[in-house]
Here is the input.
Amino acid sequence: MIATIRSWLSQMAGRSIEVHPTCRAPLERIGSDYGGWAFCPELLSESSVVYCGGIGDDISFDLGLIQRFGCQVWAFDPTPRSGAWLSAQQLPAAFHFVPKGLAGAEGTLTVFPLENPGSMNHTSVSQAGVASHGVVVECVTIPGAMRKHCHAGIDLLKLDIEGSEYEVIPDLLAQGVIPPQLLVEFHHRFAGVGVPKTRQILRLLNSHGYEILAATRGAREVSFIHRDALRRVTLARTR
Here is the structure.
């Protein structure tokens, strides 16, 4: 009840929105309570290519996909703390770490650690609760990363990139990269972002053929599936 009231008050204050599934397809969740995601398993296989933007200190989703499907996962995170944490882990050969951030343009970006001592997350979005000292990191666009790694397409793209999704998604779509599944953590709760930016991205994704497969409260984590992929799933299940 308290969580519901807080959600309602947040919506009234313009800091939150609610979205709901707009389609139905088989759904599976992989990963920890913190780092897990819902997606359609029927669109993944051993030959799938997965890009995961944002690592922090939780790769349960990445490793879960590798274990479940035997697919290849490319994980992007430019922050030094995440890189150091990752270097101490035992990782399968199918997990490929790229120490760069995903952005809407190639080059460098200054990111700032959250002041929460328990968090490894960094953001380029100016807001309260962010340290005043930043770190300059290298960034790559998703189309640029695909060219670098010789990938003709991506089967699933996960973005938990602390506010950079608002630049990455428009660039991705403008360059004709349409992953069948797109999992996004939105950051309209950041004071430097706001709900209107998330609404704009939701409209943009819908105009490019994406439906909402699953969503958490406050549209914080939203799983999208492209209509073409949805038709493939529906057709396969009717045979």
Q: What stands out?
A: The chain is about 30% helix and 25% strand. Residues 5 and 85 are 37 Å apart (CA to CA). The radius of gyration is 17 Å.
